[in-house]
Each structure stands twice: as structure tokens, then as C-alpha cells.
# Entry
Amino acid sequence: METLRIRKATKKDAGLLAEFRYRMFRDMEPGKDFSRVKASFVRKSREYYNKHIGSKNQYDCLAVLDDKVVGCGSILFWDRPPHIGHLENSMGYTTNKTYLEYELR
# Structure
């Protein structure tokens, strides 16, 4: 029986998150060839994750099926000035960094 669990990402997962981010864009635009920018994109994404994983402004998690990481997601948090109709100033955004292996969708 397969078991799906969600775990918090760590800096060790930065490379995997970067690869999943690349796959997300590739899957969103299947007619485009991103191969010429893949290495640079994955490197810059890995640098981003290494900088932001574990910060108070970002929560990254991984979906693990049995022992294989099959997906990921991120939520960004920030404060903004209060709005007259919404006095709380904390905001959250589920980024387009959400990814799940194609065969599991």
C-alpha cells in the first residue's frame, strides 16, 4: 500500500525543488523548448531556495509517496499596510511553485 505524506523541505532539498520548478514551467508550456535555459534556470532556482528555505517568509514542503519525492509546494508570506476593508496586514500566496509528478495528477 502506498503512503503519501507531506514533509517540510530543508536546504538539502534545494536542488530537487529547483528541478521541480523547471518541470512545472516545461509542463505548463509543452510546445516550448526550454532546454537551452534549463541549466541556468535550475541553478538560479537552487540559489533562491538555498537562500529562502527555512525563512519566516516562506514555507516549502514536499509530497513523498512511500520513499520517493513526487511533488512540492511553496507559500510566501509578507506584511502589507492595513486595508480599510481588511485590517490584518499578513498576506500569504501559494506560488506557482506547486508541482506533482505527471503520472500522479
